[in-house]
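Entry type: protein chain
Record version: 2
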Amino acid sequence: MRTRKWIMISIAVLLILGGLAAYTLKPEYAYIPSENKVVRGETNDIGALDIWGKTVTKEGMVRGKSSALIRSVKNGAIPIDAALLQVGRKAFYQETFGNEVFLTDILGIVNGPLTIPAIMKAIVKLKGKGTTNLQVELTRDAIIGGKIYRKGSKIDTGIDVAAGTYAPIGMPVSFSEGRLKVGISCAACHATVDPVTKKVVEGAPNSDLNTGMLLALATNSAAYFTHADTAVLQNYIKNTNRSSLPDPAALEAAVDDTFAKWPRGSFDSTTDLKANPTSIPDSFTLGDHPYGWSGFAAAGPFKGLSSLNNNVHAQNSDTLSQSETSKALFGIDKEVFIGTILQNAANPKYRYNPGKRENPSAFFINVDPTPGAPGVNELVRPPQFPKVSVIAPDGLIAGSPGYHVNEQNNAMAAWQNTLSPPKIGLTVTAETARLGRSVFGRAGCIMCHAGETFTNHRVIPAQTIGTEPTRAQALKKTEKIFSEPTIYPPDTPVPVPPGTPSLKVPIRDIDRQQIRLAYAHGNTQGGYKVPSLIGLYWSAPYLHDGGVAVGRDSATDLGVAGTLEKGIQPDPYNSLRALVDRNLRKKVVSSNQSSKDLQKVHVQGIGHEYWVDKAAGFTSGEQDALIRYLFTLTYK
């Protein structure tokens, strides 16, 4: 352990000093846990071939002919083998698709009071003990939402560090162009450290990751303005000499103020110019289709899971990627959109000067690290670009040169489907489980949460489920540029060779009304999908807005206002009880609604009023049995 410690410290020092002469060497480091650093459940058998979401078993592969398999690969099949799963796990922890350029050089996430040396210093101070919430000292004062954060004070980042390691989970670090850069991989949000063993729980959400504050501390968080309440950019345009661009300081202050209000463990994954963060979901994904809180990822490989994985990097880690659709989606001219993002870029190389007689798009072409793709991430234009579809709701496919089209997304989907939640420490006797199962049926839970994975795979209208409705309408404007889904064959290399034929993605088995509901198209107001109940112990707080939260003290730790806003982790048992007990829920909702910050970002904890309490005819013992039974659910 001591040797590994000093190796990691030495690496950090070398990077920080920049002693690697210049631009010829590009060292990178991303933590990937060894098997003895991981706690997980039994590995799921997911078959040997995925054909547009349909699974072919190993036995089926043996019966098939090799020539037929080759033809099927050309037509969209994904062979699942050890090599693919290895690519998936590596990508889950390590792959950024180049988002360190946007996050570091443009957004400036470690260029403000939060720095990489400060993060490394905090990790070293742990002395290998590990943490679920790395506390980092600020290197200078910051003012966010009128509140002063003093130099030297510690902030809760929610960044996880496993025991015996000296690197954060899901934050690959690299050194290029003479600069130290940090990116984000899937593991930052969808893996966590077990509070007891300090080992990595693969697939469990990082329920206290302070994404909003991390963004607010960036020097150019205005580059992420599409995820905040900034629908009218005109309100921030004060100087006509800035070529109609908003005042950077005014926009920055407004965006910072919004981001600081995001609850810990949440993230706003839609670019709809509204602040509607959702609770980070788990990655126990097998059988949990359609994917995404609204069920928008319903088609393509692995029943849409590849499309969900793609969403993070094709849109959420690079707002510049939406420049070709900014007019249709946001009503913002492309030049204004690009200029707004780049006018205060952290790295002068990417900083657009409105005073010069050059359009933002022309300026960006000269500094673009990924020519041929919108934005700075490693992206592939699908055949229908710039239109969007159910296979690529962002209009783009994340893919690195040297891989095949969608290969990394497919690999991550396959690997995620192998994950099961680990066993929990809560005592559940066989008698309690039988009673809980009986209550589950009598209470009607099984009407929606049916089958082996406890979901009927349906999208429920927002007005029917009654939960906070804003997020359900986030994709409504995509209807303007929606098209039939097409993609390149999975054996197509990246970059895509000219003249490569495209494939139509089959959606004939998908209810078109369900698609309309998932995207809030037509006269629908959108909806939310029925989630699987597997892994509930690891996914508190509950509902899509994460509003059903209760701490260990159910008398005082009520709602997000009484838990996460105070640095208190929601207790799974008490939070799940609030989901089914109307009296406790009433207190939770009241607490949430008393917080102006939570109302600003649409967190309430309302809806899903399916009660298992005294008023519904159930005893406290039956309620307890139901909760304990739900925590035992796993894949059979």
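Comment: The longest helix spans residues 2-17.
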